[in-house]
Amino acid sequence: MSDQEDIQRRFEELEAGRALGDLDAQEILEWEELAKNPLCKPDLSLEFAASALEAESLVQGAPSLPEGLMNRLREDMATFASPEPVGRTIARPVSWRKWLSAPQTAWAVAAAFAILLAVNLLVQTPAPSPSEPVIAASTPEQSREILRKKAVDLFESDFGGIGEYRQMSGKVVWSDELQEGYLTLSRLPANDPTASQYQLWIVDPTRDEKPVDGGVFDIRPDRETTVIPIRNALAVNDPKAFVITLEQPGGVVVSKQQIVVASAAPL
Amino acid sequence: MSDRVQDPFARGILQQVAQGGQQAMEDCIHKYGGMVWSIAERYTRDRSSTEDVVQETFMDLWKSAKRYDPAVASEATFVGMLARRRAIDFVRKESRRPQLEPLVPDDTLPHPDPMPSDSVRWEGEAAREALKLLSAETQQLFFLHFDEGFTHPEISEKTGLPLGTVKTRLRRGLIEVRDIMRRAERSQTSISSNP
A223-257, pLDDT tens digit by residue? Predict the structure, then answer.
């Protein structure tokens, strides 16, 4: 057996140990070292095989979760759930161009975006294939910090408030590779969810003209700063702008862009 | 029985969860919460820690449901994989706790996530079929680990096999199960394309 085959075989055995959770400290270091070798390509196959053997037999007859835990899960759920009904048409405004030409949109954002769009048209780079972000955290704040540490392609950009929302400030962090991102928003007025809700749009000209729905969210009055996980309904390959609008409860299918709250254009 | 066999054309819960459907999330907790609990409990053996692992698993699930592809794995396999990861990470962190020096440089073992490049659908029924082709001794070790929830040291004590032997046989057995599933898929594809 060649050295290369020995290396691959050893790596495969360590991969099995990783899937079974029985690697010792030395083996973890060995796995990390071998994983850098182009011959060794980790994937999910052994983890899936282990889970396939274990999980399905446990679905039937499994115990109910304690009520206290159910309540915690529901609280977490509320952070990620969209109020919109499942299965509706993906909500997207008519065109991202309208925002960029709208008088209330900051000139700086439009200029930055125009440059980026031109560059994008000249250099068509293939979108990186997304990988699954599996990161342990219990709050959006923690998730954002973990993303900051883990993402190798992370970008951050400041939000600029528009019109009566000029006093707001915020930041967006986003990773194309992980398809994960967060808004950190301050001094954005609290909304009454029964009357209106904020909605995020992601402008990605590599997809098409229409922005991608980034999710509906609320700002509560008791929080100075709110961290919102981005829930992009479609994969975003190369975002050129993030825009927040105020819409009817549940968000809209087609935004009239009557109230554009803020925008951010990553450079 | 796998969800694929039960309802091959239904839009699964995870695809609805990926869209942020609150009712789907609630349904998902009801359908898979007990399974996640059982997996977590096997590793933590402590109620409070089990609750933490379950909570972390569902947080992971809300974030990663959009990665779920029903052609690649059954829902139970996908959710179970996330639960196993969280539980295994928990055990690793716990094992470090009494140490003065960290055993490994990072809290969390990296979890590379490239989907398998083959066309196997990872689900319980096929995995169990593959398991039947392993030696009786290895099947017994798998039974003790995956069905009875025994740890490797417990299996070693129960069977009288050295711990290293238990680890090696389980690892090689898992690789064998995966390879059998891949061969079965290739053979199935070949039959389909050459009727």
Answer: 788 889 888 877 787 888 888 989 888 777 667 77
Q: Distance between CA B75 and CA B5 in Å, rounded?
A: 12
Q: Report how many domains make up chain B.
A: 2
Q: Is A223 helix (H, G, I), strand (E, B) or coil?
A: coil
* ipTM field: 0.86
Cross-chain Cβ contact B172/A17 below 8 Å:
no
B7 CB-near residues (< 8 Å, 6+ apart): none
Among B98, B113, B128, the domain-final residue is B113
Could you give the residue ranges of the DSSP H alpha helices within chain B? 3-6, 13-18, 22-44, 47-64, 75-96, 124-131, 136-142, 152-159, 163-193
Q: Give the gap in angstroms from C-alpha A104 to the nearest C-alpha of chain B.
A: 31
User: For residue A77, which residues of chain B lie inside 8 Å, CB to CB?
Assistant: 22, 25-26, 29, 58, 62
Give exposure, B179-189, as e/b (b: 16+ Cβ within 10 Å): ebbbeeeeeee
Q: Which residue of A has its CA nearest to B171?
A: A16
| B135, B61: one domain | no
Within 75-104 of B, beta carbons closer than 8 Å to A belong to: 76-89, 91-92, 103-104
Q: What is the CATH number of the domain that holds B153?
A: 1.10.10.10
**Residue B86 and residue B109 in one domain:** yes
The model scores a pTM over 0.95: no
Backbone angles phi, psi at A171, to 5 degrees: -145, 150
Residue A137 binned pLDDT confidence (cut-offs 50, 70, 90): low
Tell me which residue range forms the domain holding B15.
Answer: 1-113
The answer on B74 and B1 residing in a single domain is: yes
B62 and B96 share a domain?
A: yes
B7: domain CATH number is 1.10.1740.10
Mark yes or no for CB contact A44/B87 under 8 Å.
Answer: no
Same domain, B28 and B85: yes
The closest CB to that of A65, out of B2, B54, B104, belongs to: B54
B92 and B122 together in one domain: no
Phi, psi of A213 (to 5 degrees): -65, 125
Interface of B with A in 105-164 (CB under 8 A): 105, 108-118, 120, 122-128, 131, 142, 145-147, 152
Question: Domain check: are B151 and B94 in the same one?
Answer: no
Q: Kindly determine whether residue A28 and residue B109, on different chains, have CB atoms separated by under 8 Å.
A: yes
Q: Which of B81, B113, B145 is the last residue of a domain?
A: B113
Say yes or no: A64 contacts chain B, CB-CB below 8 A. Answer: yes
Mark whether B164 and B190 lie in a shared domain: yes
